[in-house]
Amino acid sequence: MRQFLKEFFYGMTSYEFVQHALELRSSLHKLFMLGVFGEMLGVPVLPPYYGLRLLPFVVPEIAAWKRSLSREREIGSDHEHDLHGV
Known about the structure:
Order of helices and strands: HHHH
Helix content: 55-70%
Structural class: mainly alpha
Distance between the termini: 28 Å
Radius of gyration: 18 Å
Number of strands: 0
Number of helices: 4
Number of domains: 1
Mean pLDDT: 79
Strand content: under 5%
């Protein structure tokens, strides 16, 4: 019963805020990757020196990042700009 009440109040009070924060984090991560490793897609933004310094840390994420960018119709279209119902 305690777990049910905990989940119920979480859903009632903060679920939407958490989802919005996760969407914003994902969006900012995609923009960071585009700014640093945009040359892989033909977008020269930063000198390649910085991208090469960060490359060992993001190698596991590159395939997923390219796949997520190819699914978007336009950058920033993955979430709404405002919370619904608040």
